[in-house]
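Fill in residues.
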């Protein structure tokens, strides 16, 4: 079983937002030392809870501070942008971290409608997503555009011996079908849907898959999990995330509250949602959470899980990843050999 990380640079009450960005870079260094496979970064805009707005910029900072772990976007919301410009950005990233760059793309806006229109005023931009994916793959790998294409003869630089690995992200059957059609690796956002539709999307992807960028299906799932030294402490820490999820049901978004401020009275409907959330939650000691994750991976027939963890305290977040690394017996990264040694 391979474990990877997705971080969103979560905003926290009582802490400047810029600290969340720096904590993300520190977490990447920490997870590399622990032996995690990938470190992915999300893209959201004008959302009070998440300040990770520019994964391509943050990836460069992570690349400068790491040497082994794969670094990726989860993802670039492609309808907002020119595929050629994205290809240039990720070619530069690949030059900074050769052979370590994952380019995850998605169709969702990662924002509200007004913000999405500021990023790209074309209300029909998402309709061109399949064509954008095809163009992006060609530009990041140096393939020539077909006759008649306005980009024929145009190159995304710098060129090198390696190229970013394109991934399709999704939380529905649409992304699964597109990934299968183009022969791309596929990642399902389990943490967004609480698992709803995940098994069906993975089955669709495997059934429809045609060799393309890769020769056979390759899928992982992004799942929310939190481990602590005791089960009681894990559930205490979870109350911050729990409050955020309950509030979101009624359109209330804000920075993450510390556990001692997260408790409030819930309506009957909110309490029912809260209990359902707890029944599904991957929360507990390292071994307890690892057992739940292994069971989920076996059920969905995946050999890689991308873990996302929200805590108000960055040290608690880092400790959670430590405990899971121990429970899964991850091998810590080896220091790169020095020249002349």
């Amino acid at each position: 079983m391979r474990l990877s990380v997705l971080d969103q640079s979560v905003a926290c009450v009582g802490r400047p937002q810029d600290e969340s960005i720096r904590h993300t870079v520190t977490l990447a260094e920490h997870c590399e030392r622990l032996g995690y496979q990938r470190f992915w970064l999300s893209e959201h805009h004008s959302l009070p809870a998440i300040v990770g707005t520019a994964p391509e910029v943050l990836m460069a900072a992570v690349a400068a501070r790491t040497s082994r772990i794969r670094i990726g976007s989860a993802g670039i919301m492609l309808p907002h942008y020119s595929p050629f410009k994205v290809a240039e950005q990720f070619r530069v990233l690949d030059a900074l971290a050769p052979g370590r760059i994952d380019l995850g793309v998605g169709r969702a806006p990662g924002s509200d409608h007004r913000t999405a229109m500021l990023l790209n005023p074309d209300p029909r931009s998402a309709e061109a997503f399949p064509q954008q994916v095809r163009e992006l793959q060609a530009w990041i790998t140096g393939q020539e555009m077909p006759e008649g294409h306005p980009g024929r003869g145009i190159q995304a630089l710098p060129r090198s011996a390696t190229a970013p690995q394109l991934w399709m992200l999704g939380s529905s059957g649409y992304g699964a079908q597109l990934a299968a059609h183009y022969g791309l690796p596929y990642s399902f956002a389990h943490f967004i849907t609480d698992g709803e539709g995940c098994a069906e999307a993975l089955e669709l992807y495997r059934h429809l898959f045609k060799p393309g960028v890769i020769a056979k299906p390759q899928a992982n799932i992004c799942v929310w999990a939190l481990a602590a030294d005791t089960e009681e402490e894990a559930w205490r820490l979870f109350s911050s995330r729990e409050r955020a999820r309950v509030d979101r049901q009624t359109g209330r978004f804000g920075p993450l509250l510390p556990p001692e401020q997260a408790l409030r009275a819930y309506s009957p409907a909110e309490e029912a949602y809260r209990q359902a959330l707890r029944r599904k939650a991957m929360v507990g000691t390292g071994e307890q959470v690892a057992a739940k994750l292994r069971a989920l991976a076996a059920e969905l027939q995946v050999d890689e899980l991308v873990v996302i963890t929200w805590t108000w305290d960055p040290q608690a977040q880092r400790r959670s990843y430590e405990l899971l690394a121990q429970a899964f017996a991850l091998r810590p990264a080896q220091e790169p050999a020095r020249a002349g040694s």
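The beta strands are 2-7, 38-41, 70-77, 101-106, 165-170, 186-188, 219-228, 282-285, 304-308.
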